[in-house]
Design a protein that fits this description.
Number of strands: 0
Order of helices and strands: HHHHHHHHHHHHHHH
Largest sheet: none
Strand content: under 5%
Number of helices: 15
CATH class of the largest domain: Mainly Alpha
Distance between the termini: 116 Å
Radius of gyration: 29 Å
């Protein structure tokens, strides 16, 4: 019996020892994982960085990236809108111009544009002429509050938007090479210098000018550049009769133009929403949501008001005018999409629709041939949206807003007029009458968008 007891207790002791050893081995990885998880927090604490700073950095960066790819998708919207509103023989050219200008804008904004707009402005008129560099691989500096590459990407897609505005206005008769030279100057120099005055903490920012997401800085700048170009370029052959009457030149595809409008509408949520520039707090996320809602209501207001006015005035509703009414509503709310209440957003967008209905015929009377209606949408509605900011934002001033509108108008129009004038003198702006009649798809691109139907069209 004693021997049995000895074996029994020996076996029991061995079992307990093995169990303890197993538990210790199992606990080791968990302890190591906990230590690894705690290490970043300890490192952050040692460097004076709170874990919340890291979270804000991550979400702010995500906001820029998500907003940026939504605005990048607007390039497709502009391409489809323009492809639908030009004649069949010029569709390939508009597609080519839009992918070309987007790519050129990206390179120029890296080479000099971003630094001119944001580096060393310090209350002045211009930044630094230099290429821009961003965080190194694996960069973890939290001082900026976001990845510098994400900010560059978000700002770059805005400059491409300004160039797209010019493309639509000058469609069907400008030389591809001449247009691309202007895009280089616009995206590398004109837009960045103008943008530095406000978003780069320049003199207008110091004065208190307010333009949340770019009714003036992006859309009116593009509109002023388009106006300068169209005045030098002239109208399409046959667009106006000898007595000055406007001759309709219907676009190739209403479905494409409608698709383009919806794509632009979608992209505008990134355009305005990500201009909150922060998503690291509950308050920021709430404001981004409010911006989305106001942006959508303003576009809807532009559509409904345009439809009503067209029915009352003309007895029929022109779908191309309604599409532009939506875009004018979006441009109008862009200067201040956060502060307005819902009804104010609808009203601001609705007035944008009114602007389209009355200024498109005005341009026809002035014999200004704006193929896609970009000047009423981006220039006129952009001015309206900027001027009305103090009605909803008490920190803004009507006088300062007016000063900003005038300053941007004079600078952009004059600079664009000079550049277009130089290009016209050296390279020529306009294609020949024969090439225009044939269509740019055949004369300059060599690829027809609709080869079965376009040959010899108008």
């Amino acid at each position: 019996m004693n021997l049995k007891k000895i074996f029994y207790f020996a076996a029991l002791g061995a079992g307990l020892t093995a169990t303890a050893a197993f538990a210790q081995d199992a606990a080791a990885p968990a302890a190591e994982a906990a230590a690894d998880a705690a290490a970043p927090a300890a490192d952050a604490a040692a460097s004076g960085e709170a874990p919340g700073d890291q979270t804000a950095y991550i979400f702010n960066t995500l906001l820029f990236l998500m907003g940026g790819f939504l605005v990048m998708w607007m390039a497709a919207g502009f391409a489809m809108l323009e492809a639908g509103l030009v004649r069949s023989k010029n569709v390939s050219m508009q597609c080519l111009k839009n992918i070309g200008l987007y790519s050129t804008a990206g390179i120029m904004y890296w080479a000099c544009g971003y630094s001119l707009m944001y580096t060393g402005v310090d209350g002045g008129y211009i930044g630094t002429l230099a290429p821009y560099s961003w965080d190194p691989v694996g960069g973890d500096a939290l001082s900026t509050g976001y990845s510098t590459a994400s900010d560059w990407f978000f700002q770059m897609v805005f400059v491409a938007t300004a160039a797209s505005i010019v493309s639509g206005t000058l469609a069907e008769r400008i030389k591809l090479g001449s247009f691309m030279v202007f895009v280089i100057i616009l995206t590398g120099f004109i837009y960045p210098i103008a943008g530095s005055w406000q978003w780069g903490a320049g003199w207008l920012s110091e004065m208190g000018f307010s333009d949340f997401a770019g009714s003036t800085l992006v859309h009116s700048v593009g509109g002023w550049a388009a106006l300068a170009g169209v005045l030098l370029l002239g109208s399409r052959t046959g667009r106006f009769a000898k007595d000055g009457t406007a001759v309709p030149m219907p676009g190739s595809s209403i479905p494409l133009a409608t698709l383009g409008t919806f794509i632009l509408w979608l992209g505008w949520f990134g355009f305005n929403g990500a201009s909150q520039l922060a998503m690291g707090t509950i308050g920021d996320v709430t404001d981004v949501s409010r911006i989305f809602a106001n942006t959508n209501l303003a576009a809807a207001g532009g559509v409904v008001v345009t439809m009503i006015l067209l029915q009352v005035i003309y007895g029929r509703v022109d779908v191309t005018m309604v599409l532009n009414g939506a875009l004018a509503g979006l441009v109008s709310i862009t200067a201040e999409p956060l502060a307005p209440t819902a009804w104010q957003a609808i009203l601001i967008g609705g007035v944008g629709g009114v602007i389209v209905v009355f200024t498109v015929p005005l341009l026809d009377k002035l014999k200004i041939d704006d193929v896609v209606g970009a000047i009423p949408v981006h220039l006129f509605a952009g001015i309206w949206g900027t001027i009305v900011v103090p009605a909803t934002n008490g920190d803004a001033s009507y006088v300062t807003q007016l000063i900003g509108v005038v300053a941007y108008g004079i600078f952009t129009f004059v600079a664009s007029l000079v550049v277009f004038g130089i290009v016209k003198a050296i390279m020529g702006l306009r294609i020949s009458a024969e090439e225009e009649a044939l269509g740019l798809d055949r004369s300059e691109v060599g690829v027809e968008a609709y080869p079965e139907f376009a040959t010899g069209q108008r």
